[in-house]
Each structure stands twice: as C-alpha cells, then as structure tokens.
Specification:
With about 325 residues, this protein is an alpha+beta fold. The chain has five helices and 16 strands.
Length: about 325
C-alpha cells in the first residue's frame, strides 16, 4: 500500500448526532480572524471534507471540525465546523461535543467562571459545562435567536390542506404537525417524512414569501406527541440536503421554541422537555433577545456528548474513490 495522506480523528456523538474532530493531518490554517481561517480552509483543504465526511469513511449525517488557537485572549480555543455542503455555521450539538472533547482529553480547563469560551466564524460561544472529575456530565449554552416570520400559512398538497409556520433563525425553517399528514415522528416513517419535506419546501418556495436576500429554507421541522410521559413534544428536522437531525437540541430546536412562544404555549423562563426521533430528551427554556427589533427568543439548551473512538485514516493514491461519495 502506498499512503499519500494520513489523518487522525476523535469521534463523538451528542444525543446521536456525530462529530468528527480532526486532530492530525491538516497543516497550519492561516488567518488573523476565524472568518479568514474558514476561508483559508475552504480554499486549500476542501478535499479533507470530502475524504473524512463522505463514504466510505463517513456518511451523509457526519459533521466535522478543526481546532485552532483562540483569536481572543478570553477564549479557550477556536473551532471551524465543516459539513457536506457550504453551510459551516455552528450547531449546538457540535459545540457540546467539541467542548466535551477538549475538557475530557485535558486540552483545556474551565475558566474562573466555570465556562469554556469558543471562537467561531459566527462569533464567540460561551458554554457552561458541568463536570464530575474528568467526565463532562452536561454542557449548556444559548443557541441562535429565532422568531416567527410568517404564521398560519395554508398550503394544499396531494389533497391535504396544511397549516404551517415559517420561522427565521440562522436560516428559514418550516414547522408542521406530523399528525396533519397522518404521520408520526418515528424512525420507520422517515421515508414518508422525507418525501413530505421536499413537497412542503417546494410549495413554500413557490409562494415567494421570503423577502430577505441570500436566505433559503434550510429544513422542515415535524412535531408530534411525545413517547415519554415527562416530555412535552417530539420532533425531527429534515434538512434540504437530506440530512436528518438526531438530537433534540440541534438547529431545529430554536425555531420550534420560537413557534411555541408565538402561539402562547411557552413563556419566557418556562421550561419544556423536547424529545428527539431517537428518544433522547433535553430540557430547554427561552429568553427575549433584546438585541433584535423583531420579537426574537434566545433558546437555552443543554446536552451531553460521548467520545466513541479515536481513529487513523489513510489515503491510497490507487483508490478509485479517494474523495468518497454520498448516497442519499
């Protein structure tokens, strides 16, 4: 075997959502800001994303990140997130996973305020880990703010009259009750939910409701009655690229909480237990975002991550699938 590339990684999952932390094999990433570092990585190391996130080494749901030195004095470290598409924005389950990795491997320690501060291209993220010895039992943080952009939108699809809400967070999300489709948020019904996610996205786009430039519908959030007696709501987010959110505190949590608040079902400071499609639960609350002119809420979420393995990946130049592939 001839080896032209060698990578080391540590893999984690946060409520089933995978994160691959790339620990070796990437040269120094240039840039004085995190945005510059993101641009440098995209320009020079896009092949890394294809090799380590795509099959046969990864899969459609795999996400990755690269640790960098911090930009600001008060920060513990910097991180660049990578995904299969061009969306490299932060997501809460990846923040929880990388915080867990950095603490449990002893690379960083909590600051004097018992926090870990992370530099990202989207700005600083302050996390509040709860540790017992060397183990991270929980990580909490404020997620991206969100508000209901349009509500009670009626569409007609395949003989059904559906009422949906359009919510803006980092991107636009559509929220809908799965029962309106005669479905449940269960793993065995994912093929039908994915089919409907494409139909609903197309219907909403044809209405041309979105006036903001460079914005898109990122995902469809299907909600349902919970399976656990102490949960309030069960949901799953299906993204426009086919990815399925496994955790209850990912990108879909903020838009869902904003919709509940808009409908008077969740007050400021009240707690709610969300349940994911794989049955993991988390307790969330909201506060008002006073920095926005809109009636935006800030989701407060918490979760836990686990290290699943430490790996070495190599690339053989005679491999016909060097950069991998994705089956959707």
């Amino acid at each position: 075997m001839e080896m032209i590339k060698h990578f080391t990684t540590t893999d984690l999952h946060s409520s089933g959502e995978p994160l691959r932390v790339i620990t070796g094999g990437i040269p120094f990433i240039m840039g004085e800001t995190m945005l510059e570092k993101q641009g440098y990585f995209n320009e020079h190391f896009d092949y890394v994303k294809k090799i380590l996130l795509s099959e046969p080494r990864g899969h459609l749901g795999m996400k990755g990140c690269i640790i960098t030195p911090p930009i600001f004095k008060e920060s513990n470290f910097g991180v660049l997130f990578i995904n299969h598409d061009e969306d490299n924005s932060i997501c809460s389950h990846s923040i929880i996973a990388v915080t867990t990795y950095m603490l449990e491997t002893g690379i960083v320690q909590l600051n004097e305020n018992k926090q870990v501060i992370i530099d990202t291209p989207s700005g600083n993220v302050i996390t509040n880990p709860v540790c017992k010895g060397s183990q991270v039992r929980e990580v909490s943080l404020n997620h991206l703010s969100a508000y209901v952009y349009k509500h009670n939108i009626v569409i007609h699809s395949l003989g059904k009259e559906l009422t949906i809400d359009l919510v803006l967070s980092d991107f636009f999300y559509v929220t809908i009750n799965a029962a309106d489709l005669g479905l449940n948020v269960n793993i065995d019904q994912l093929p039908e939910l994915k089919k409907w996610s494409h139909i609903i996205k197309k219907e909403i786009e044809e209405l041309k409701l979105i006036k903001e430039e460079n914005q898109m519908i990122k995902g469809i959030i299907f909600s349902d009655s919970p399976h656990h007696c102490d949960s309030n709501l069960r949901y799953v987010t299906i993204f426009e690229n086919g990815q399925i959110e496994r955790s209850p505190y990912g990108a879909g949590a903020g838009p869902l909480l904003a919709q509940l608040h808009h409908k008077g079902k969740l007050g400021i400071g009240e707690h709610i237990t969300l349940e994911s499609i794989v049955g993991v639960r988390t307790i969330c609350s909201i506060s008002l975002d006073h920095n926005k002119k809109t009636k935006s809420i800030v989701p407060h979420i918490c979760g836990r991550a686990f290290i699943t393995g430490m790996h070495q990946f190599v690339v053989d130049p005679s491999d016909p699938l060097i950069e991998g592939f994705l089956l959707k």
